[in-house]
Amino acid sequence: MRIRRYTGKDAQEAMLKVKMDLGSEAVILSTRKVKKKGFFGFLKKPLTEVLAAIDDDCGSKNYDKPAPSAKMRNTAGLYGQKTAAGSVQDDNDRVSMLESKLRQMESMLNKIYSDVSKEKAQGQKENAKVNHTAETTIRSVTEKTRQTANQTGADIYKSFARVLAESEIEPVIIDRMLEKLKQLVKNPNSIDDLFATARKILVNILGEPQTISFREDGKPTVVMFLGPTGVGKTTTLAKIAADYSLNHKKKIGFITADTYRIAAVEQLKTYAEILNIPISVIYTPQEIKEAIANYSDKELILVDTAGRSHKNAEQFAELKMLVASAQADEVFLVLSCNLGRTACKEIINHYSFINNYKLLFTKLDEAPVPGIILNARYATGKRLSYTTAGQSVPDDIEVADVENIVRSILRVNE
Question: Residue 334 contacts by C-beta under 8 Å, 6 or more apart in sequence?
């Protein structure tokens, strides 16, 4: 008897294999469901297993097999012949043993699956723990980064304040600048981030410069130049006269009250001669009205005054009388860019008796930084007008270049 095992996806397929192999005389010994081999087979749909047997005589009828050879018969005799019943019993024992092994394998696979599931669950817990730790770390790093950014921002503002301080800007202006910048620039990454906004603020503070505003009633426009000694009033007056005489074809007259310095009178007379402009010299404040009346045919009268020390009360009182008598249409307070902050504040305070005036700054080329321009503009609220840089007449004078002044204050070229 021959015993064989057949598997199929279902009973019909397994039986078909039995009939094709053993024929219709085959005897079905057992059927059962089995799992495919391997780990992944355990998770798939089970197969149908059929254990079938056939008598050797029936098999010879179906397959017309030749009779066993003498050698085969001798071999069979050597090992002994088994009865059909004994052969079936042996096959059943082997089947039972295989089934036992299969059950052991199934149990082992179940254990493996259980262990894998536990490891997966444990892994998920570990991942959750790692994720929680990572989130905590990220929050900590984010907070530290934010603190660092805030600290960096503070340092940037300090650096910017230092730039303004080095440009001789008054502390009150620096404080206001920083207050405004913090409103407009929330998180600066570098000092450069502040420059564009700071430039706009400073340009707005300095304002649009104004030059001489001429009368429209046909009378001459009287312009007076005031300021301390040594700031360059006479040379500046000559530069303006040359510009309006040569470039604007204005009829001009000179008046000088600076008789305390003989060189000043001679200097202005020289300019008057070169430009073909008449000049009058006065010695007392009372003479100013008559001198102005004598130039009724002119369009522009430029009045030079002596540099008066604000610390000399008598001289300064005389200057006030001159200003009151002249009743000038325009007054320019002439200041040197190389004045210190303290001296500039003192001069501005002592010239506060002037109702209205414009700021004119000389020696821009001699000043390392033009901070005084911003300080004076902020302190007085008066308009800027001209700046001079050099002694050449009439070339070294121009309407104040606000953008250029701001760039110098911010040291953007350094």
Answer: 225, 226, 227, 231, 232, 233, 236, 360, 361, 362
The top-scoring range by mean pLDDT among 50-64, 187-201, 354-368 is 354-368
Q: Give Cβ neighbours of residue 176 (< 8 Å, ≥ 6 apart).
A: none
- CA pair distance 159, 366, nearest whole angstrom: 26
- Helix (H), strand (E) at residue 163: helix 84-166
Least confident of 3-12, 145-154, 219-228, 317-326: 145-154
Rounded Cα distance between 246 and 165, Å, is: 41
Query: Three-state SS for 338?
Result: coil
Please name the helix (run of DSSP H) or strand (run of DSSP E) that holds residue 331, with its range, or none. strand 330-336
**How are beta strands 300-304 and 221-226 bridged, if at all?**
parallel
**Residue 305 identity (one-letter amino acid):** T
| Strand boundaries in 215-299, DSSP class E | 221-226, 252-256, 279-281
Radius of gyration for the alpha carbons in the chain, expressed in angstroms and rounded? 56
The domain boundary residue, chosen from 205, 223, 250: 205
Distance, C-alpha 371 to centroid of its chain: 28
Q: What is the pTM of this model?
A: 0.64
Q: Which domain holds residue 315?
A: 208-410
Element (H, E) at 6: strand 2-8
CB atoms within 10 A of CB 253: 24
Spatial separation of the C-alpha atoms in residues 1 and 58, rounded to whole Å? 9
- Measured in degrees and rounded to the nearest 5, phi and psi for residue 28 equal -85, 115
Among 156, 178, 205, the domain-final residue is 205
Same domain flag for 373 and 277: yes
